[in-house]
Amino acid sequence: MMNDTTLTESGLFSVYWDDGLLDLLCGLALLAMGCGWLIGLGAFAVIQAPLWTVLWAPLRQRVIEPRAGYVAFSRAQRQRTGHGLGLALGLGIAVFVLAALIGVGVRSGQLRLDSPDLVAGLPAALIAVTAVLAALLTGARRFYAYAVVLMAGAAATSAAGWSPALPITVAGIVVSVSGAILVVRFIRSSRRFQESS
């Protein structure tokens, strides 16, 4: 009986993320980070990224929960989520530190990103690790696809010597569009459901 309950909660937890709101906010964070980096905002472009995810809970309460309802998960599930979020935050801080170090290295002339260099692809690769962690944490497999986009961008950036901001910007566009499509689909589905009931 306990296994059936756990499987049911696990399945519900996976579906819980299907509305696309998290994708949309993560995509906007990546897009703002990449564009900010491209126009020279430096560390500020990276610092703003976690602020987008802070918007997730209040937006979910206002946009998603009135249409889908509120779900209270077990203490064990909340603890697993908390540990995963802590790990994701740690990776986010690592990305920030790496980006700051790259920025300092470029300004001081010790690091050149205009020639093929593995360092140029590292920020996107680290964010890809965070996307994999998000997939494991939420059960939303599309985050694996986002990780593949980021890793492909990281590899291309390292090979071609592009700006580290380029793969982050492209991934931001991909994730934002995917999230927006899922949010619109969710709202339309909930509207049809309300009209039919």
Verbal overview:
The protein is mainly α and 197 residues long. The chain has one domain (2-196). Helix content is 82%, strand content 0%. It has helices at 2-15, 21-38, 43-47, 49-54, 56-68, 75-108, 118-138, 142-160, 165-196. It is elongated and about 65 Å long. Mean pLDDT is 78; it is low at 1-7.
Strand content: under 5%
Any idea what the radius of gyration is?
A: 19 Å
> What is the N-to-C succession of helices and strands?
HHHHHHHHH
Specify the number of helices: 9
- Overall structural domain count: 1
Find the structural class using helix and strand composition: mainly alpha
Average pLDDT confidence is 78
Strand runs, count: 0
Uncertain ranges? 1-7
Oligomer: single chain
Major sheet: size, sense and barrel closure? none
The CA-CA distance between the termini, in Å, is: 32 Å
Give the arrangement of secondary structure elements.
Layout (H helix, E strand, L loop, with lengths): L1 H14 L5 H18 L4 H5 L1 H6 L1 H13 L6 H34 L9 H21 L3 H19 L4 H32 L1
Give a concise summary:
The protein has 197 residues and is an all-alpha fold. It has helices spanning 2-15, 21-38, 43-47, 49-54, 56-68, 75-108, 118-138, 142-160, 165-196.
